[in-house]
Amino acid sequence: xxxxxxxxxxxVFRKLPGVSASGMxxxxxxxxxxxxxxxxxxxxxxxxLFFLPDSVRxxxxxLSKTESQPVTVGSDNDLRDHLKKGAKDMEHLRGITSAKxxxxxxxxxxxxxPSITNEAKADEKVVGGEALEDLTMSRSKxxxxxxxxxxxxxxxxxxxxxxxxxxxxFKKCLLKPPLGIEHGKSSHPQTLHRRDKVKEMMKxxxxxxxSFAWGKNELRPLTKNGHIGNMFGxxxxxxxxxxxxxxxxxxLIDEYNDAKEWVETSLDLNSNGxxxxxxxxxxxxxxxxxxxxxxxxxxxxxxxLELGEKLLPxxxxxxxxxxxxxxxxxxxxxxxGWASAGSSILAEFGTLHLEFVHLSELSNNPIYTEKVMNIRxxxxxxxxxxxxxxxxxxxxxxxxxQHHVSIGGLGDSFxxxxxxxxxxxxxxxxxxxxxxxxxxxxxxxxxxQKSPGGLTYMAEWRGGILDHKMGHLACFSGxxxxxxxxxxxxxxxxHFLDLAAxxxxxxxxxxxxxxxxxxxxxxxxxxxxxxxxxxxxxxLRPEVIESYMYMWRLTHDPKYREWGWEAVxxxxxxxxxxxxxxxxxxxxxxxxxxxxxQQSFFLSxxxxxxxxxxxxxxxxxxxxxxxxxxAHPLPVIQNNTTTLAxxxxxxxx
Length: 653
Ligand code: DMJ
Hints:
- With about 650 residues, the protein is mainly alpha-helical.
- It has two domains: about 1-60; about 140-635, Alpha/alpha barrel (Glycosyltransferase).
- Helix 12 (about 300-310) packs across helix 14.
- The longest helix has 25 residues, at about 190-215.
- The termini are far apart.
- The model is unreliable at about 1-5, about 5-25, about 45-140, about 145-160 and about 640-645 (pLDDT under 50).
- It binds 1-deoxymannojirimycin.
- The site of 1-deoxymannojirimycin has 9 residues, from helix 22.
- InterPro entries: 6hp_glycosidase-like_sf, Glyco_hydro_47, Glycosyl_Hydrolase_47, Seven-hairpin_glycosidases.
- Belongs to the glycosyl hydrolase 47 family.
C-alpha cells in the first residue's frame, strides 16, 4: 500500500515543473511535504479502523481481542467503571431516541397525555406480544457480527461434549412422579368431564394443524394452510415443539409420537434465518427441555444442546446483555429496529434464566449459567428509578434507555423469571429472591392501583406518569404473586395471596364476554374494559387462565375452575372454527370476526393450563416443576448442587 502511495505521489510530482521523475530526486521541502502527507494518511487509516463494524476482519487483526468482548460484571468496581463509561454513551443514545426510530407497520401508537416527559415521549411506539410476533426484523444501528468470534468463556472448552447427565438419577431426585398417581385424574365426575373436553380441544387443534400446516410454525384455520412468520429465523414446526409436553401429559401418545418423529427427522437447526432470541428460547429451547425431562428421550437433549450453542453469540456485546435478534446460521445479532437506540428489551433478555441454567445442567457446561448470571448481576447493580426496572436497556452502555415500566408486554416475564429462578433453585437462589421481592415492593408502591369500582390493577409507568391500563399479558401476574406468597416476609404471606386473588379477579372482570381484550383501561369511567377498538382483540392468549390455574392450586377455591370453564365455553363458541381455533378481532362485537391464526402458545399454554386446572395437583406437582413462560415444565434443581463449575443431577439429591 505504501509503495503504491509513493508511486502515485511521484507521478503527481513528476507532472509538476522542476520536479524529477524519481522520488529520489525530490527536494528537501518536497520530501518533507511528502512525509507529512504520508504520516497523515497512515494515521487516518488506523483511526478509521475504530469506526469499522466489529465484523470486519481487519479490525480484529489490529485490535486486541478483549476490546470486543462482553464485559462480565464481576466486581462492583468493574461495574462502576463500566457504567461511568456508559453514561457518556447514554447522552448520545438519548439524542437518537428523540428521533423517530424504525417501526413495524403493526406497531401501535400510544396516544399520550400532554404532561408526559420528553424522555417518555421518546417511547413513541410500543409493541404488544402479538405485534412482536409479526414484526419485520429491521436492523438497528447496533448490529454486530459474531460469526467468527469465539464464545469467550474459558468454560467453552467443555461445550456440549460432556453428556454425563444421568436421566435415571435425575428421575430419582424428583419428590413425586411427574404425572401423578393417575395422570392427575380427578375423582370428581364434572371435573373429569371438563378435563376430557380440554383434551378433545387439544386433539382437534393438533389434528387440524397436522392436516393443514404440518411442519409450518402455526395453523391458519380459516384458509386451512400454514404460517411461517419471521420470529423463529429458519426454524420450523413451532407448534410441534410447543405441543410436545402438552400432548404427553394429556396422554395423546400417538400424537406425541408423531411430534417426536418430526423433531427427530425434520427439525433442522442449521437454519440461516433471523430469529428472536427470546421466542426461540421460550418455545424451542423450553419445549425441547421439557420434552427431554418428561420422557428421557436423548434425541431431545441432543437437539436442545445444539440449539443452545447457536444462541450464545447473541451475548457478544460490550455488556453481555444480548441483542434481541440473532441469525442462527452466522451468529450475527442485532437489536430490534423498533427498539429505541438499539436497546434490548427487559422481557427478552430477562427471560432466559430458567432455560439457560438447564442448558448448563444438561451439557455440564457452565457457560449458559454464566451468561444469564451476568445479566442478573448487571440488573441487580444498576440504579433503578424508584426501584423499578424500565423496559429498555442499552446492550452497549448497560444503561436504561427509557423509563417505561410495565408488568405487561416488554417487562412481564422478567419478573416471572426472578421468582421462578428462586423456586427452580430449590429456594436457594437468594439473589433472585431478593431482587423479586424488591421489585414487587416497588411495583406495589408505584404501579398497583385501585379503580373507583374497587378493582386492583397494575398500571404502566412512563417516567413517573401513570397510564391506567393493564394488558392481557400482565394478567399472568396474579399467578406470579401467588406462587411467591410463601417465600417473602411471613407477615406478608396473606397480603400477597390477597393481591394475587385481586389481580386475578380484575382479569376475570375484563372477560365480560367470557374472553378478554388485549388491553383494558381504568380511566374515563372505564372499569377493566377496552376503550379503544385496537385493543379489543383476543389471540388465544393464556395469561388469565394461567392465573386461574395457579390460584386454584394455591387456594382450591372452586371459583377458579368455574372461571376456567367459562373460558372453555367461550373458546368453543367464539374461537372454534371448522379447521382449528382462531383468535378474534373484537371481543365485544356481536358478530365474530376471526384473525385466522392458531397461535402455538394456545397449544403450549392455554390448553395446558386449562388441563391442569381440571386435574389433581399431583400432575406436574409444583414442588418439582416450574413452568417457563411458555408453560413448558422444567424440574426444580433439588438441593441446588449447581455451581458454575459443575452439574447437579449426578446423584446428589
Ligand atoms: C407467550 O409466548 C409467553 O407467555 C410470553 O411470555 C408472552 N406471551 C405469549 C402468550 O401470550
